[in-house]
Design brief:
Length: 164
Amino acid sequence: MEDVIKALPQLAKDKENENKKFFAKLRKKPPKNLDYVMQELHEEEFERTDCLECANCCKTTGPLFTDKDISRISKHFKMKEFDFIQAFLRIDEDKDYVLQTTPCHFLGADNYCSIYEVRPKACREFPHTDRKKFQQIAKLTLENVKMCPAAFNIVEKMKRRIKL
Ligand code: SF4
Ligand code: SF4
């Protein structure tokens, strides 16, 4: 898996123009069964992907923390929300709460998430490839394929399966 992760930024760069063109067409004319196709591609990919061998999302980017995430996770630690924010979060250029540092503080050396049961919504949903109306998150997906091998593979399969 390490070799795959290392090679991914260059692979994604090589595919960037092709991906941009594909998503531009997809946004204009999404097929009627897009939600269904994405669900299938997502399930297929994650049946053979072991995120515990990777954890590249937790190591390199980390999630946004919503107010609900902050409330749930600080309760888990029996911390005041303010103290939790001070300890672990900062506000980014889009005014969202994000991690102060990466790799994520809650990631263990064994790639397990120490707050798995209460982890942020964005972590539960990453890389969002089973999201309904997938064409709406093209920009985000073009970023995610640079660091998530599963998202990269799903987009490659999309291009073969969906003829636009
Ligand atoms: S979601 Fe993607 S980047 Fe994150 S651990 Fe799984 S394969 Fe790796
Ligand atoms: S909270 Fe857990 S799942 Fe989310 S980035 Fe941190 S270690 Fe990964």
